[in-house]
């Protein structure tokens, strides 16, 4: 059951990543130059108070540079990558094949 939920969350993130890619492509075509929405801009628009709290907490810790790098990553790439990781993690592992001894 947990594998099903993880796979479903992965598929939702994968679909969100492709939707963000389409939005980025549409904005780029309409604007005449490359326009990519970073993860930081999307999180500030969706969760303004929580994002500022996360940034303040990250600046006080050792994770600050990694957090800043993550917030600059494209939204479409981040969602697609996280979705692919969840789908890969939810796959059943195959049993190794036992070959008969000669």
Automatic annotation (TrEMBL):
Top-rank taxon: Bacteria
Keywords carried by this UniProt record: Membrane, Transmembrane, Transmembrane helix
Bilayer-crossing regions: 69-89
Protein name per its UniProtKB record: PetM family of cytochrome b6f complex subunit 7
High-level lineage: Bacteria, Pseudomonadati, Pseudomonadota, Alphaproteobacteria, Hyphomicrobiales
